[in-house]
Amino acid sequence: MRRSTAAVVTATAIALTLPATTATAATAASTPRFLAPADLPPHPSSDWYAGAVTAGVPDPVPFCYGQALPGATSRYREFWTDLDANARQVTVVEKDRASAKGLAELLRRSVRQCAARTEAQYPDVDATVRDLGRLNVEEGARLYAVQVTTEYTRDVHLFSVGRDDRTVTVVQWGQMGRFKDAPVTAFRNTARTSVAKLY
Length: 199
Description:
The protein is of the alpha+beta class. Helices cover about 25% and strands about 30% of the residues. The chain is globular and about 45 Å long. The two termini are about 30 Å apart.
């Protein structure tokens, strides 16, 4: 799996007394769905590939928001191309809407503060964050872009933090380049799909 250089810098199931087929259908319906490779911004010279949906938090933890993830209830899926672009979706099902709303805000704040936090940890790194606005899908999604520059490299990341009822999902896309190289319009579609596709 290929990862962008910035990764180096930052380095429920409910038991019911029902027939088995009914219980299985109910469980499947309550499990959030993840993005497919075709849902990601098209890459000009490579297909997208996807790993399995995995329980827990990715290791190393995701850039910008990983420290805010609750490991016990997180699930994630990794995506990559033949070149330097990569992506990840992390989804968390909280116990109720209020908890999910709080988690979504915590994750958004983590991304907003990412540039300042990165520069404080790595004095030789220059980082900038941009708020790309809100999407009206289910309970909403917020988009951000973060550019990270070192002496030798420059990477750009796009983030979406969205919520549907008590489920929160984060999508991160990244590759080498600058803000102007990021496929913001296509990523908006990806972000909208990530929330709309959950259930």
